[in-house]
Design a protein that fits this description.
This protein is mainly alpha-helical. It has one domain. Helices cover 79% and strands 0% of the residues. The chain contains nine helices and no strands. It has helices spanning 6-18, 22-34, 36-68, 75-93, 106-114, 117-131, 138-148, 152-162, 164-195. Helix 4 packs antiparallel against helix 9 (164-195) and helix 6 (117-131) packs across helix 7 (138-148). It starts with 5 loop residues before the first helix and ends with a helix. The relative contact order is 0.24.
């Protein structure tokens, strides 16, 4: 991955990994309901689920790169479209927070992360946009997978530790946070299309 794309990847990690989503809301809800200490066990499940999913997505992306070779560069448009779609979904949410009620356990956390479509699509987008156009080596994909840990489990942990403080903030400023997140995602999408044009 060229260093010129690193700021875009880091902005995506910040926006997608740290804004409200299924696993982040789940982390917040479990922290509020069961306390931070007990919720850390659930977070280990989120970390394990994310790591498994990231490795599987890296392998699938590697195989995709082998299968379609020269056409990989066109995947950036699908990645950019997905980011615009996420921006739309964030705007549509209109500051509302919703979470799922589930058991606060390692396995509960793992299942939440393995079924988190937002993260699975983000991983595929990141791999196909930032790695495949430049390298099809599985090792390069796994390095980016490690970076993505900042997005998934890093964001989940931040929400878990923030607990009740974030609930009040998002209840008061949810629309503003959503608007800024949507704008950042659209800027990421534009940067992906513009900066990787050959």
């Amino acid at each position: 991955m060229p260093y010129s794309l690193l700021p875009t990847l880091l902005l995506q990690i910040l926006v997608i990994g740290y804004t409200p989503g299924p696993a982040n809301i789940y982390s917040l809800a479990m922290s509020l309901r069961h306390g931070r200490r007990e919720s850390l066990c659930m977070w280990l499940g989120l970390l394990a689920g994310f790591s498994i999913a990231a490795c599987i997505m890296a392998i699938l992306t590697h195989l995709l790169g082998i299968a379609i070779g020269e056409y990989v560069s066109y995947l950036k448009y699908a990645g950019a479209a997905y980011l615009v779609y996420l921006a739309y979904k964030i705007c549509k949410r209109n500051g509302q927070m919703s979470g799922r009620d589930s058991e606060c356990s390692f396995w509960g956390g793992m299942i939440v992360q393995l079924t988190n479509a937002k993260m699975l699509l983000f991983e595929l987008t990141a791999f196909s946009t930032f790695v495949l156009p430049h390298s099809n080596r599985l090792a390069d994909l796994l390095v980016v997978a490690a970076w993505l840990t900042l997005a998934g489990p890093g964001g989940n942990l931040a929400w878990l530790l923030a607990g009740s403080y974030l609930r009040g903030f998002f209840a008061q400023y949810g629309r503003l946070v959503d608007a800024l997140s949507a704008i950042a995602l659209i800027l990421c999408a534009l940067w992906i299309v513009i900066s990787t044009t050959t």
